[in-house]
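Consider the following input, taken from an annotated entry for N-acetylmuramoyl-L-alanine amidase domain-containing protein (marine sediment metagenome).
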Amino acid sequence: PLESGKSSAHMIVSWGRKCAMTSERHYLKPTRYLASDMHSFVRYHLLAMLICIGSIACSNLALAESNVLKREAWGAKPAVTSRMRAHKPSGIVIHHTSVRQQRRLSIEKKMRGLQSFSQRPGRVGKRRKPAWGDVPYHFYIGASGRVAQGRSLKFAGDTNTRYSTAGWIQIVLEGDFTKEKPTGGQLTSLRDLTKRLTRRYGISGERITAHNDHASTNCPGSNLKKHIPSLR
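Applying the prediction step yields:
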């Protein structure tokens, strides 16, 4: 597990560059020395290959992250961190919004509405909710499959059900999956997102879970829950 949040690709690049710099100084010695020292020659080129592989992996990670709509892009207000708890991610919980998909509304507008609701006292079903510090989820996947950044991963999410959210990355998909099905775009984005998060935080497959694995609720709906085993 990389608790610092650094990916293995970043570590490979950093390590490879340090080793390559050391080997390069060795490699630039007189030619007759290199001719008799094939180990140095082979080692140098292997390290160069590692740097290339690591750079490609970093590029792919950056590309995946660039596909997430950032908070500033959807117009987020500042989080009230005094109402939030710091944590270290070690698992994933998957939810649905429990409201039918609304494809005509932009994801930016949906996120602003969710944050406004979250940061004031209100009700979720028959239960009262306090004013939370921010949106309760870390990621929101819209009907089109577009992913928006929610709460900072440095902080635990919030819930109106009874379980501890500390350590759990909260991902919500737009829709009521007791009545409708997730779109192909949503399932593709969910698969890509969980793969990236499990690699980054060293999360094992059995810790990719549904909300109703933790609390008494029908969330995330049977039409979504049946896809969770394929994510592990």
